[in-house]
Amino acid sequence: MGRMPDITTEQGVYVNPAGEFTRDQRYIASRITRDGRDGYPVEAGRYRLVVSRACPWASRAVIVRRLLGLEDAISMAIAGPTHDKRSWTFDLAPGGIDPVLGYERLQQAFFKRFPDYERGITVPAIVDVTTGEVVTNDYPQITIDMSLEWRDHQRPGAPELYPEALRPEIDEVNEVVFKDVNNGVYRAGFAGSQEAYEKAYTRLFDRLDWLSDRLADRRYLVGDTITEADVRLFTTLVRFDAVYHGHFKCNRQKLTEMPVLWAYARDLFATPGFGDTVDFDHIKRHYYEVHRDINPTGIVPAGPDLSGWLTPHGREALGGRPFGDGTPPGPVRADEVVPREHTAEG
Q1: At the top level of its lineage, which domain of life is listed (predicted)?
Q2: Domain residue limits at 174
Q3: Can you list the pairs that 293-302 forms with residues at least 24 positions away whose Cβ atoms lie under 8 Å?
């Protein structure tokens, strides 16, 4: 009988055997700005946003782009839900080649600009179509710049996701949510020791309890409209029961067992720009197929039941105006619609 192949040599290793998982926060810091001070001026049609619907960090950019109506200004390439340790691939595109960039792998755009690039090939990433080179993969800055630097290309009625008066509070909330929730689920899932896991687990659920208290009598995290803070929390919450509860052992409770956060998440899910960008099939396939050091069989769970996402949430009673003085985005572009069988309606 032949030796079984070591899948981790192809998929990569995620668990830190020394204990606590630490995320590499070194990203390409170039920015696309109105004044083009980094050499990348705002210019409609020049840049391509590369995402995977599986990735929570990329999903932030997908949501913000849609809420602000930047589809015509910034094109989008959707990578497949799985990748190997080298790179995300464009296996969803005809022939496995992105039709705009002409690339099979996102890695090619990184190497085009940085031939010796040694860090992770991550999404979201923005590529300069004119050169084929990556511009940035600094995901927190990407969405902020969509709100501020791309204002001239936003749709009429685009919401203020990062209003000046609320920025200090948004930044404060985002910082603790990132540390304890967005990255907290990974700190639990990729922990290599019982001690590191339990520390991350405790921090995660303490923060979720704090968020439940905060949202008990207010519809949104900061102010009375949707902001960048809600986008960042939503992309973790929408993945919680599907992957984090079981795969990452974040199992004190399911999201469906935390009444305030469950209602809050359903409220956002029902808001145009949020739930209509979520691909549950891609989410599950990514985590369970790629993280083979956690899930060696690669078996993707059949559940959970997603129908609850479509049930009434009752959060309208708290007031608030989702888009403030703006309006909801229109229908999803035909070439960006999530397949029905991958949604809560499937």
Answers
A1: Bacteria
A2: 164-342
A3: 293/8, 293/13, 293/14, 293/15, 294/14, 294/15, 294/189, 294/190, 294/247, 294/248, 295/247, 296/7, 298/7, 301/246
